[in-house]
Amino acid sequence: MSVHIRFLGGAGTVTGSKYLVEHDGHSVLVDCGLFQGYKQLRLRNRDPLPVLPNHIGAVILTHAHLDHSGYLPLLANEGFHGKVWATPATRDLAQILLPDSGHIQEEDAAFANRKGFSKHAPALPLYTEDDARRSLKLIRTARMQQVFEPVPGWKARFYGAGHILGAASLLLEVGGRRILFSGDLGRPDDAIMLAPESPPAADVVVCESTYGDRDHPEEDVLAELGPALQRVAARGGTAVVPAFAVGRAQALLHAIAQLKAAGSLPSGLPVYLDSPMAIHSTELFAQHLGEHRLNAAQCRDLATVATMTRTPDESKAIALQHGPKVIISASGMATGGRVLHHLAKYLGDHRNMVLLTGYQAPGTRGASLAHGATQLRMHGKDIPVRAEIVQLASASAHADAGQLLAWLRAMPGAPRRVFVVHGDPEASDRLRYRIENELRWQALVPEHGSTWAA
Q1: What is the torsional sign of CA 101, 88, 74, 23?
Q2: How confident is the model at residue 104, as a pLDDT?
Q3: pLDDT, mean of each 10-residue run, the chain (454 residues)
């Protein structure tokens, strides 16, 4: 019998990754992500999957970012009770990210109900913090390179992907086919994460394309971040830095520690890490030495270079700190969380700055700021944008187009086909074109909801 892949997310868009592999009456869902960005994408989170959750044999997570793991509590609520496979670090991060996601959704729904700006009465979260904690009980772990059976007769193995702690590519062997999922690939020259491992041989590759249409600049993050923070500090302003709680926040803390140590930033410049999720994620680096480039002393620097604001009251008290300061807060594309309150307070003053630190999915507030929006809608109000907006081109944790092609080229042999996923349409199609013309491999960009034989 043939093996099929159904593209239930991450096709034609950079969010919501879900790939259902089916063979001989069994199925495995690779990644279980939330859709983010445009409202029409986010509405998909409310739609039932075109497969009954209790018919899915297992879920395998390539990493813990919510666009790859955040749908799991919903899937469990809807009847999935199988095993969820992940690396140990992905499990540890999911224990932070998923409950936090549920908590933020509850907070946002409660705020919308109090202020009366939701179109739904009442506004309801996709899932709660308790829902998320229950779903975590389904997770089982496998180390990198360890063979495991997600369902009887199927073999799977993780390979290091860089990107964030625990991130992996996945080789799935089923029905005589070897299917390789890239997951989100990191950069070989990342300051914190190890380079992605060389890919194994495979018949079919499902490859991400977040930066499939561009290469990263040669300038490093220190050369971009230092002058920007010097500028805002000199005029007594506040830099608000929306940052992914996992990966990006830690990279920024590491860079700021280096800039302060070199004297490029005043040692007394106040820095706040205002995200409980980012704080807990930062603490994990010391627990996973050897899985990243930082040593124990550098992990301690991550924890001391900023004031960690854990409670809502501590977060609110940041506004009482006068003079220049840096606030790093989630979420990275300003889609929710505490960073919205900081943006609402600081966007309207020209002395301040918003530092965007990586990919901003279309339809997010971060993308609006990157494209020159003069006002930003938050909590039912339009906030004028007068602060300086800076987008760091060098801060991405994703491989660029050239690095994606180099990873594919390192395969021991040519696959029969490459499916190009997890990218905006232009980025995905551009990478497809380069795969076909430079590698001479068959490649295509699948449509959302489509099914293809592997």
Answers
A1: positive
A2: 80
A3: 94 96 96 91 90 96 96 96 98 94 85 72 87 98 98 97 97 97 96 96 98 89 93 96 90 95 94 93 93 94 93 93 94 87 95 91 90 90 94 87 98 97 96 98 97 94
Return the H-helix or E-strand segment holding 178.
Answer: strand 177-181
Amino acid at 61: L
Helix (H, G, I), strand (E, B) or coil at 272: strand
State the helix-helix crossing angle for 248-261 and 276-287, rounded to 10 degrees. Answer: 80
- Helix count and strand count (H, E) for the chain: 14, 21
**DSSP alpha helix (H) spans, 371-437:** 401-409, 425-434
SS3 letters across 198-219: CCCCCCEEEEECCECCCCCCCC
Rounded CA separation 216/238 (Å): 27
Cα torsion 437, 439, 441, 445 to 10°: value is: -60
Two tokens, residue 355: 């530092």
CA separation for the pair 338, 316 (Å, rounded): 10
Contact 48, 74 (CB under 8 A): no
Strands 443-444 and 83-86, bridge-based pairing: unpaired
How many angstroms separate the CA atoms of 285 and 290, rounded?
Answer: 9
Q: What is the pLDDT of residue 53?
A: 94
Q: 257 — alpha (psi -120 to 50), left (phi > 0) or beta?
A: alpha
- Report the alpha-carbon distance of residue 256 to residue 272 in Å, rounded: 11
Residue at 210: amino acid letter = T
CA angle in degrees (0–180, nearest 5) for 448-451-454: 125
